[in-house]
Amino acid sequence: MQYIVFFVRVIEKKMTSLPPSECCAKVAYQQGTPSGHIEIISTLKCYVSSNYTTNSDKYLLIFTDVFGIELLNNKLLGDHFAQQLGYPVIIPDILFDDPLSEGSTDFQRFFANHPVDKTKKCVFNFLSSFKDTFPHATFIAGIGYCFGAKYLCHHLTESGIIDVGAFAHPSYIEEDEFSMIKKPLLISAAENDPVFTRESRVKSEEILKCLNIPYQIDLFGGVYHGFAVRGDLSKKQVKYASEKAFSDAVYWFKYHAEN
């Protein structure tokens, strides 16, 4: 009963995307060997790409889904972005080494361990000291997948240090949070998504039109929530959507780094 009441309480708020659900727990594992490593940055464990340095002028921050930095797919994603962008990628562990367990759909436990205020504070503290740790940074991009999109959203405001953002199948974002965005935003959405629904996409577009910021919304037909990180790449349609969402994000970040 507590589980049901929790979700009812959340859904009563005006949302542009709903809370994570069972679709967020499905993983098709990719093949590969990560080339990055774990680094402690501002007391937070992070996965960093092999070209990591504190002297770069550009960085990409990835805010993960509920599986965090230990999921192979997330590590490989960071490596691929670093290869294509040519500058360091950092994936902070905003889950405090406590991701959703493999095969689990126990979101009641997950949200009890990761309340919004706790995660917001974690991300805020990490980003507040970012410019001190990386004094040469003049361009910071951010991308949020599912759970992580909400916490990136808070730093795409006028005073936020993130210069350009991207979401892939976002979850749990309230309209008030979405309406505060002042930076360019790319959204990659799945046609079949019980979290970022058609109604959510339409509402997001309506808000973005009013914000007068550069934005792009891509809708991929025939794929499901999670396709950009955890999709089954043996399926041609999913592979295409995953690769296209990735290449769009790379182009989005490159364009806004130069303009």
From TrEMBL:
InterPro entries: AB_hydrolase_fold, Dienelactn_hydro. It comes from the Eukaryota. Residues 58-255 form the Dienelactone hydrolase domain. Signal peptide: none annotated. GO terms for molecular function: hydrolase activity. PANTHER family: DIENELACTONE HYDROLASE (PTHR17630), PROTEIN AIM2 (PTHR17630:SF44). This is Dienelactone hydrolase domain-containing protein.
